[in-house]
Amino acid sequence: MASQKRVGVVLSGCGFLDGAEIHEAVCTLLSLDRRGVKLVATAPDVEQLHVVDHVKGAPADGERRRVLVEAARIVRGQITPLSAVSGRDLDALVFPGGFGAAKNLCSFAVEGRAMRVLPEVERIVREVRGAGRPMGFICIAPVIAARLLGPEGVKVTIGNDRDTAAAIESWGARHVDCKVEDAVVDERLKIASTPAYMLGPWIAPVATGIDKLVSAVLEMA
């Protein structure tokens, strides 16, 4: 009998404007859980770029929150600091999106093409890549794959946003337009991506695309 696969899910907070997109995160966790994997939810223990009031859609002055603490809300407290997770111990790794992926896991939201990836995030991506294991990147998170694996010519999608696609290709990666219900798979590098809420418009089509991504990731694991 095959051993249970261990799949890491890297969260970037809680709430699409300043952390992980909650629908994407839950759809990812549900899709993985239904396939019987061992979930390893994780997040970096760093301060968020800022806190956004999700009613007003604007930054909340004076508030400060930590990514790990906020991400723990999504997984009922069952979360591990990213610093304590080794990519070599995982069979696969998935990054849900949300602005937190572009604000807390990397600096794309602020620096665009000059973006930097959080060192802990870069470490785990390179460990998983070095072990030849698959990864999935959802919504805006594929910019992380493109920035780190662009020199290898990784193929990803963020949907069809021209400016983001141009940034992705500026790093040597290849962008492929994709519908929300579909996923793009780079079988050579074992990378899957799906647009999710880069296109929306709501939960059902986003969930369909994420389920296809999860299926593709586990088939490569």
From TrEMBL:
Q: Classify the source by domain of life.
A: Bacteria
Please give the InterPro entries that the UniProt record associates with this protein: Class_I_gatase-like (IPR029062), ElbB (IPR026041)
**Which PANTHER family does the UniProt entry name for this protein?**
ES1 PROTEIN HOMOLOG, MITOCHONDRIAL (PTHR10224), GLYOXALASE ELBB (PTHR10224:SF12)
Report what the protein is called. ThiJ/PfpI domain protein
Q: Identify the species of origin.
A: Anaeromyxobacter dehalogenans (strain ATCC BAA-258 / DSM 21875 / 2CP-1)
